[in-house]
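Title: Comparing notes on inverse folding

I've been comparing how different people in this forum approach sequence design from structure. To keep things fair, I'm posting one structure and asking everyone to reply with a full sequence. Here's the target:
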């Protein structure tokens, strides 16, 4: 009997070591496959990396548990039939986990947001968390907020999502410029400057338009409008404004004391 226990202990240690080694190899294989085959061609595939790792880990854990039960000759049939009350208690306690898993499935199925998106999440009454999505798991979503802090949000607590990266934002700038040429020539020149400023700031704007809003005998008010995906120019909006002001000053149309006013 003592020898049988020693043999079972050795087999248990071997099973655990083998399971850990297989888990590490599978995770490395998933990372390598994603890095070489999918991430470069399909950036959205990064969204599924964390859930796939979780599924692989859970499947391997189930197999290891079955192997250990077989090693120790444990018959779980009678225990399962007599564990109705325990199962009910566990089911009641795990309802939050089930809710998080179902909410996580909805996030993936409906493509509400992806890794790298800038989002605002409503988690309760007047409770809004904003940041960049770092990872989406089966139970939680991980954000990096504006202060650089890592925030873990259970998927079941996500009530409303505003995806700023998938929306379109409108930017308008108005300039009071002295009359230096005809209206058509000034509009064409300002349009060229605005397009160059957007390109330099790496803003994918479509389209850029220039309008004459008001005028006096001494000056004219021109309004520059552009539309672009929110996520494409959050960090570069200020750069575009600076490039445009510099171009107008270099042209001699805008004095150093003049400013541009964005309108929403």
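Reply #1:
Here's my take.
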């Amino acid at each position: 009997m003592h020898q049988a226990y020693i043999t079972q202990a050795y087999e248990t240690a071997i099973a655990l070591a083998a399971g850990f080694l297989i888990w590490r190899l599978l995770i490395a294989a998933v990372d390598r496959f994603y890095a070489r085959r999918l991430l470069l061609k399909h950036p959205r595939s990064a969204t599924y990396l964390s859930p796939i790792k979780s599924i692989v880990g859970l499947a391997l854990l189930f197999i290891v548990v079955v192997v250990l039960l077989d090693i120790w000759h444990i018959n779980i049939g009678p225990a399962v039939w007599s564990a109705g009350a325990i199962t009910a208690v566990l089911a009641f306690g795990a309802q939050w986990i089930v809710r998080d898993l179902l909410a996580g499935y909805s996030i993936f199925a409906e493509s509400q947001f992806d890794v790298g998106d800038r989002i605002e999440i409503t988690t309760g009454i007047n409770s809004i968390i904003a940041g960049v999505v770092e990872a989406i798991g089966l139970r939680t979503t991980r954000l990096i907020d504006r202060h650089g802090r890592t925030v873990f949000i259970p998927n079941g607590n996500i009530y409303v999502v505003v995806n700023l990266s998938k929306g379109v934002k409108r930017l308008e700038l108005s300039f009071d410029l002295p009359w230096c040429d005809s209206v058509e020539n000034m509009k064409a020149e300002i349009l060229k400057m605005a397009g160059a400023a957007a390109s330099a700031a790496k803003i994918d704007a479509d389209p850029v338009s220039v309008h004459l809003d008001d005028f006096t005998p001494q000056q004219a008010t021109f309004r520059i409008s552009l539309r672009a995906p929110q996520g494409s120019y959050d960090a570069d909006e200020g750069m575009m404004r600076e490039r445009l002001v510099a171009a107008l000053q270099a042209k001699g149309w805008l004095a150093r004391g003049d400013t541009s006013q964005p309108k929403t």
